[in-house]
Design brief:
alpha+beta; Ubiquitin-like (UB roll); four-stranded mixed sheet; 23% helix; binds zinc ion
Length: 74
């Protein structure tokens, strides 16, 4: 798709790293599937992936995790 930020680039499938912070917890998700603009580098994460990230974050929060690095598996 066309990038909504720079309006010049085209997004390509790739992977990114997402950091989520909640209260005192920091979660780092690696290899999160995303569409990345080949011009400005803006990252677009689908709502399904975003939902999965938040679901995971809630689970970790309940476990009392404060810092964790995870590999995201869609
Ligand atoms: Zn762009």
């Amino acid at each position: 798709m066309k990038c909504a930020i720079c309006r010049n680039g085209i997004t390509e499938e790739g992977y990114t790293t997402v950091v989520l912070e909640r209260d005192q917890m920091t979660l780092v998700f690696k290899r999160v599937p995303a569409e990345i603009c080949n011009n400005c580098g803006e990252e677009y994460i689908s709502s399904e992936v975003n939902k999965a990230l938040l679901r995971h974050a809630r689970k970790e929060l309940n476990r009392g995790v404060t810092l964790e690095m995870l590999n995201f598996a869609a």
